Amino acid sequence: MAVHPNAPGLFVGIDVNGWDLPQYDGTDEDEQKSTTIIKYVEAITGAEFGISSRIDSSVFPFTQDSVRLDIDYDGNLSSRRHFRAMDVARAGRRVTAGATYNTVDGMMRRPMLFAELTLHEGASDEQLPGRLVNLGTIRIRCSRCKFERLSSRDCATKAGGRTSRKQPEALIPDGKLSEKDLKGKALTHQATLGDPVRFKQRSNGKFTVLGEPFAIFEFRYRSRAALQAFGVLPRSPSPQPLTTRDEIDDIIQGHHANADDNKQQRKIKRERSLCGDDGGDGDSIQMTEHRSKKARTREVIELSDDD
């Protein structure tokens, strides 16, 4: 999971099948801002994903406040996660899964999936270029907020007064994109949506955001081949297409095992360097995150925004 220098103790990652996808540093060309950190992850075609988050209250600087995570996918779809101040002190990995929206029949949720784009050489879409800047990006804005508990009557009024949102859809509904629109950008996937499911709103209060986001996490998802072309991943034989949940689990666990191997190799090279042995090639990749040890802490699956 990624850690932001402005928010020690807040861990954020991309969850697939209960695992955090390995995260990789980008190239020197990536623009890093004081409030934003950028990580790359491999998009696994067809995999359902969510946003994992965890707070270590022993070092987190905002334990007196509630915390809100505003999540957007491709700049087009959104979801939300709140930690009330009383929740910040509780251990546990939480997963925010899917895009939510309101209908006249109640709240609905649609799961998020990685979908591969189909490129063609036809005419460009004049309406797309300005919107493609966020394609292939999951952005999580973290803000302090104040929680106010509402009475049952106020909660009912609040829920009844919600305006219905348009049903969400992928940025490129048919998944087809002209190479002319890419303009050399290595975009390979988008976030698309699964079948809708109904769920019950669980909020008993309202949250008011206090100021600007104190941290922004930006995850750029690409195919393995694209990450290799960037130099983010070392080149290796192309894997076969994944078709089952077990195969997806296998590749994620394999990435974590490779991360551990790379860590050990770097340790050996440092020891050799201290002994005067500076032979051998340098590492071609820096692994920045490893799988957290599984679950002695409680895990909560978050299905909706809380307000």
Give a short summary of the structure.
The chain is α+β, with helices and mostly antiparallel strands and 307 residues long. The chain has one domain (2-274, 283-302). The chain has helices spanning 85-88, 152-160, 179-182, 224-230, 245-274; strands at 2-3, 10-16, 19-20, 36-42, 48-55, 66-73, 77-83, 93-96, 99-103, 106-110, 112-116, 118-120, 137-149, 176-178, 189-193, 197-198, 205-222, 299-302.
Describe the structure.
The chain has 307 residues and is α+β, with helices and mostly antiparallel strands. The chain has one domain. Helix content is 18%, strand content 35%. It has helices at 85-88, 152-160, 179-182, 224-230, 245-274; strands at residues 2-3, 10-16, 19-20, 36-42, 48-55, 66-73, 77-83, 93-96, 99-103, 106-110, 112-116, 118-120, 137-149, 176-178, 189-193, 197-198, 205-222, 299-302. The strands form four sheets. Strands 1, 2, 3, 5, 8, 11, 15 and 18 form an eight-stranded mixed β-sheet that branches. The protein is globular.
The strand count comes to 18
Work out the count of structural domains: 1
Cα Rg: 21 Å
Q: Given the helix and strand composition, which structural class is it?
A: alpha+beta
- Helix segment count? 5
Uncertain runs with pLDDT below 50, 5 residues or more?
A: 160-164, 266-298
Strand content is 35-45%
Average pLDDT confidence is: 77
Distance between the termini: 26 Å
Major sheet characteristics = 8 strands, mixed
Oligomeric state of this protein: single chain
Pfam families: DUF7918 (PF25534)
Organism: Teratosphaeria nubilosa
Protein name: DUF7918 domain-containing protein
